[in-house]
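queue> pop job 88
queue> type: inverse folding (structure -> sequence)
queue> payload:
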């Protein structure tokens, strides 16, 4: 039977060597965390390396998907609560498949040309509880969008999306103010967004 030779004290690493190895491992782990994990998982990029490697965009997509999943879960919970209490108000959301008036023509239409890297914003002047149906499409490319509202020191985001070519549904104003859409063109050619609306609002206006 082969007997392995036991290491001597001289063969074992010293405390100084162990401390040095631990320090190197810690520094390497922190570098990986800051340069790779944070950008790719949480879109946090303090060094700019994640953006250069394309990891930050991955993190932004993951964060956006997580936010949308949370919003969908909250909407589902609100729908359940609404069914259980018929007298309660409909929660403010940008909903799909909830038309205000299917048999009426669109009240307003606006065409917005968005250059590469730029954004555009169109809003409806609405009072709290009012509902407006909308439909929009992009020609020439896709856009990132944020359906949101602001006014009286308040703000709310109804729905966000990335690389979308169309959207539609109903906005129910959570408060009196301006409610609508912000689109950004991340492509390299001009994109035209056509938005149509009808329902309960005072006016449609482009604010950006």
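queue> result:
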């Amino acid at each position: 039977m082969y007997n392995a030779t036991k290491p001597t004290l001289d063969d074992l690493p010293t405390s100084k060597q162990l401390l040095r190895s631990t320090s190197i491992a810690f520094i390497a782990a922190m570098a990986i965390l800051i340069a790779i994990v944070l950008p790719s998982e949480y879109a946090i990029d303090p060094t700019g390396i994640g953006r250069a490697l394309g990891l930050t965009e991955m993190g932004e997509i993951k964060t956006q998907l997580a936010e949308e999943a949370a919003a969908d879960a909250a909407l589902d919970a609100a729908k359940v609560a609404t069914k259980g209490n018929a007298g309660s108000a409909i929660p403010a959301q940008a909903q799909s498949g909830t038309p205000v008036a299917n048999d009426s023509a669109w009240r307003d239409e606006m065409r917005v040309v968005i250059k590469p890297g730029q954004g555009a914003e169109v809003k409806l002047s609405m009072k709290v509880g009012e509902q407006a149906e909308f439909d929009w499409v992009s020609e020439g490319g896709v856009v990132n969008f944020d359906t949101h509202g602001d006014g009286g020191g308040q703000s709310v985001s109804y729905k966000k999306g990335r690389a979308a070519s169309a959207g539609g549904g109903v906005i129910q104003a959570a408060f009196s103010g301006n409610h609508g859409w912000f689109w950004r063109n991340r492509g390299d050619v001009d994109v035209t967004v056509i938005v149509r609306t009808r329902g309960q609002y005072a006016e449609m206006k482009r604010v950006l």
